[in-house]
């Protein structure tokens, strides 16, 4: 039963056309993945701002998830793991906005939280 509830929590993260809602994306979330990649490659002043935005998004989303037996889907990962996952995603999806990359990361973290093997983000294709 607990596994079924956890699966339901992950399914709730999946987009549903019928119940989709529009949110106003704020801050670095509106930037393109190519802007992320450029800032991180060149180590501009913008890259720590982007990292902070991402980590805040991860914290807020993790806090809002209700997966039985999992307090924080990001707890076993270092900040550098999360940033590296976004680096990889953005390298493959340069025209996507950062909010989509962050959302994909959270879906991956929720999926990994349900696996007992302790996989790391990025070990699975996105």
- Structural class computed from helices and strand pairing: mainly alpha
Number of domains: 1
Which residues sit in consecutive blocks of at least 5 with pLDDT less than 50?
Answer: 3-8, 14-18
The radius of gyration over CA amounts to: 15 Å
Give the total of beta strands.
0
Shape: globular
- Tally of separate helices: 5
Largest sheet: none
| Helix share bin | 55-70%
By oligomeric state, this entry counts as: single chain
The H-and-E topology, N to C, reads as HHHHH
Distance between the termini: 28 Å
User: In what range is the share of β-strand residues?
Assistant: under 5%
The average pLDDT score comes to: 82
Structural notes for this entry:
The protein has one domain (2-16, 28-113). Mean pLDDT is 82; it is low at 3-8 and 14-18. The chain has helices spanning 2-13, 33-42, 46-64, 79-92, 98-113. The protein contains 5 helices and no strands. Helix 2 (33-42) crosses helix 4 (79-92) and helix 4 (79-92) packs across helix 5 (98-113).
Provide a concise account of the structure shown.
The chain is mainly alpha-helical. The protein has five helices and no strands.
Features:
126 residues; mainly alpha
Helix-strand layout with pairing:
Elements: H1 2-13, H2 33-42, H3 46-64, H4 79-92, H5 98-113
Helix pairs in contact: 2-4, 4-5
